[in-house]
C-alpha cells in the first residue's frame, strides 16, 4: 500500500473528486479525515471507507471559517496523532461570470473558499509537518488556473492564485522535506461542476470535457493523480502543477 499508516485530511471529501481521493487514499492504507459541510454525506463516505476495511473519521468544516479549519486539523491530530497529507479540494465555481457581471459578494466568496481556505489549512498543518521533517500538500486547482479562457473571472483568478500558493510553498519548504503540488483538472463529472454552468459557460465546459472524450471524466481520473502526488512515487515532484485535462490546456 502506497500510503500505509499515513494520515490524510481531504477537504470537500463528501462528494466528487474529494470523495474519490478519500476512498482511494483509504484503500492505499491512509487514515483519512473526511472534511466537508454536508454532515450526512460525510457519514456516508466514512461508513463506506470503514465498510471496506479502511480507517476514517468525519469532520464538518467550512473552509471559509478559520476557526473551523483549525478545528479540522486539531481533530485529525486527536483521532490519528498527526497529519502527513493535506488535500485542499473544497471549492466552488462562479457560473462562468464575466467581469462585467460579477458581484463583489460572489467574487469574495469564490476567493475565500478556493484560495484563502487552502492558505489557512496549509498554515495550520505545516507546523506539524515541519516537526516531522516531512509532509505532502496537494491542491486541487483547475485548467482555469493555468489559462485565461476556461472559467469565470472569479474562479480563474482564485485558481491562478492557488497555483501561485502551490509554487511558493513548494519552493520555500522543499529543504524542510515538505512537498506541495497542484492538480489542474479539466472537465470532471461532479455536482459542483454540472450545477454551476450557465448558458455562457456550457460551451467552454463542453470543449474542455470533450478534448479526448465525449463527456466529463469520472473523479477517479483525478484521484489517481492525487495518489501519485501523495506517495513516494513523486518524491522528486515539488512546486508544480499537473494538468489532468485530456490535453485541453495543450491547445
Verbal overview:
With 251 residues, this protein is an alpha/beta fold. The protein is built from eight helices and seven strands. It has helices at 16-27, 39-51, 66-80, 104-132, 153-172, 191-195, 199-209, 220-230; strands spanning 7-11, 31-36, 55-60, 85-88, 135-140, 178-185, 241-244. A seven-stranded parallel β-sheet has the order 3-2-1-4-5-6-7, with helices on both faces. α2 links the parallel β2 and β3. α1 (16-27) crosses α8 (220-230). The longest helix has 29 residues, at 104-132. It is globular, with a radius of gyration of 17 Å. 50% of the residues are buried.
Brief summary:
This protein is of the alpha/beta class and 251 residues long. It has helices at 16-27, 39-51, 66-80, 104-132, 153-172, 191-195, 199-209, 220-230; strands spanning 7-11, 31-36, 55-60, 85-88, 135-140, 178-185, 241-244.
* Beta-strand residue fraction: 15-25%
> Low-confidence parts, pLDDT < 50 over ≥5 residues?
none
**SSE series:** EHEHEHEHEHEHHHE
| Biggest β-sheet: strands ordered side by side in the sheet | 3-2-1-4-5-6-7
Name the overall outline: globular
How much is the radius of gyration in Å? 17 Å
Structural class: alpha/beta
* N-C termini distance: 36 Å
Count of beta strands: 7
Largest sheet: 7 strands, parallel
By DSSP (H or I, 4+ residues per run), the number of helices equals: 8
Q: State the share of residues found in helices, binned by percent.
A: 40-55%
Average pLDDT confidence is: 92
Tags for this model:
seven-stranded parallel sheet; 7 strands; alpha/beta; 251 residues; 16% strand; single chain
Amino acid at each position: 500500500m502506497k500510503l500505509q499508516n499515513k494520515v490524510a485530511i481531504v477537504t470537500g471529501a463528501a462528494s466528487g473528486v474529494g470523495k474519490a481521493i478519500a476512498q482511494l487514499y483509504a484503500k492505499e492504507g491512509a487514515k483519512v479525515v473526511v472534511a466537508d459541510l454536508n454532515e450526512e454525506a460525510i457519514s456516508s463516505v466514512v461508513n463506506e471507507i470503514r465498510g471496506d476495511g479502511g480507517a476514517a473519521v468525519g469532520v464538518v468544516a467550512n473552509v471559509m471559517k478559520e476557526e473551523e479549519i483549525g478545528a479540522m486539523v486539531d481533530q485529525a491530530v486527536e483521532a490519528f496523532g498527526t497529519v502527513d497529507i493535506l488535500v485542499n479540494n473544497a471549492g466552488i465555481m462562479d457560473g462562468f461570470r464575466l467581469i462585467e457581471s460579477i458581484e463583489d459578494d460572489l467574487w469574495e466568496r469564490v476567493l475565500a473558499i478556493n484560495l484563502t481556505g487552502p492558505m489557512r489549512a496549509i498554515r495550520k498543518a505545516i507546523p506539524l509537518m515541519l516537526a516531522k521533517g516531512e509532509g505532502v500538500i496537494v491542491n486541487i486547482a483547475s485548467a482555469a488556473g493555468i489559462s485565461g479562457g476556461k472559467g469565470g473571472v472569479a474562479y480563474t483568478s482564485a485558481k491562478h492564485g492557488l497555483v501561485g500558493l502551490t509554487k511558493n510553498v513548494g519552493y520555500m519548504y522543499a529543504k524542510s522535506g515538505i512537498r506541495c503540488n497542484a492538480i489542474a483538472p479539466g472537465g470532471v463529472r461532479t455536482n459542483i461542476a454540472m450545477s454551476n454552468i450557465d448558458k455562457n459557460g456550457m460551451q467552454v465546459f463542453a470543449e474542455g470535457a470533450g478534448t479526448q472524450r465525449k463527456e466529463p471524466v469520472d473523479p477517479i481520473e483525478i484521484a489517481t493523480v492525487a495518489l501519485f502526488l501523495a506517495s513516494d512515487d513523486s518524491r522528486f515532484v515539488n512546486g508544480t502543477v499537473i494538468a489532468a485535462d485530456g490535453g485541453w490546456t495543450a491547445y
